[in-house]
Amino acid sequence: MAKPKGGSAAAPTPAAPPPTKRLPAGAKATAGLCVFIAAMGVVAQQAYDIRMYAIRDYGYVIHEFDPWFNYRATEYLAANGWHAFFHWFDYKAWYPLGRPVGTTIYPGMQITSVAIWRAMPHYMPLLGLQPMSLNDVCCMVPAWFGITASVSLGALTAECSGTWSAGVAAAAIMAVIPAHTMRSVAGGYDNESIALTAMCTTFYFWTRALRPDPAVADGRATKASVVFGVLCGAAYVYMVAAWGGYVFVVNMIGVHAAALCACGR
């Protein structure tokens, strides 16, 4: 049987859905960075708060044995200056022999505390705050550097993993992990309290200096690699001045550099 001419009309083609609006890649990166900074601010606040319990309960008091010597050495540096500090023979320590402080101390923490204390009268009034005493600065240094250590580790993790979320997670863990809080609680004025910041910062600058540049394929040094390489060296010098554990840093960087060479990097 023949089909009638001009058979049934074809079904209309459905209209295409409107294109989905997506943020440009640059806007997404900026938004991710803003969220990362906000999250790191929350982490920093929590890191500070958990380290302040000793101050809230007992006031601005230096506790433990080594922190008391470190505070006395800081007082001596503030009162007598560099030359006297590095030539100081302390008859009250290591009795009955005494201690040649200038050749047996890692002075980074004392230098840092005195520098902060002397800078406070210049900028604290601008913020409507009163400068702190040297004792109070020494009590607060571990808590302040507990924050910077957490943030530095977050930056290091974000650089190595390539994700902001991993960096925030690492910083949050560093902020509350007992192994770190016990060495950076306010009043625990010991070398480890600032050394973790120096260590994490050194590692961050090292990995950042090694970040590949898509525009350079022959392995030449870039401006960023030179800048961050110099910053890595400066952070390592500060690490050496702060704590005897600097050998961990130079060993890890040496092993990593050897591994890169073995892999053809």
Characterise this structure.
The chain has 265 residues and is mainly alpha-helical. Helices cover 66% and strands 2% of the residues. It contains eleven helices and two strands, in the order αααββαααααααα. α6 (134-161) runs antiparallel to α7 and α9 (192-209) packs antiparallel against α10 (223-242). It is globular, with a radius of gyration of 27 Å.
Q: Gist?
A:
By secondary structure, this protein is mostly helical. It has eleven helices and two strands.
Largest sheet features: 2 strands, antiparallel
Low-confidence stretches: none
Q: Averaging pLDDT over every residue, what do you get?
A: 88
N-to-C SSE series? HHHEEHHHHHHHH
The rounded Rg comes to 27 Å
Query: From the helix content, strand content and strand pairing, which structural class follows?
Result: mainly alpha
Instruction: Please give the count of helices.
Output: 11
Helix fraction by DSSP (H/I, runs of at least 4): 55-70%
Question: What percentage of the residues does DSSP assign to strands (E)?
Answer: under 5%
Largest beta sheet: strand ordering:
1-2
Work out the number of β strands: 2
Task: Choose one word for the global shape.
Answer: globular
Q: How far is it from the N-terminal to the C-terminal residue, by CA?
A: 78 Å
Secondary structure: elements and pairs:
Blueprint: H1 25-51, H2 53-58, H3 65-86, E1 89-90, E2 99-100, H4 101-104, H5 108-123, H6 134-161, H7 164-176, H8 178-181, H9 192-209, H10 223-242, H11 246-262
Antiparallel strand pairs: 1-2
Helix pairs in contact: 1-6, 1-7, 3-5, 5-6, 6-7, 6-9, 9-10, 10-11
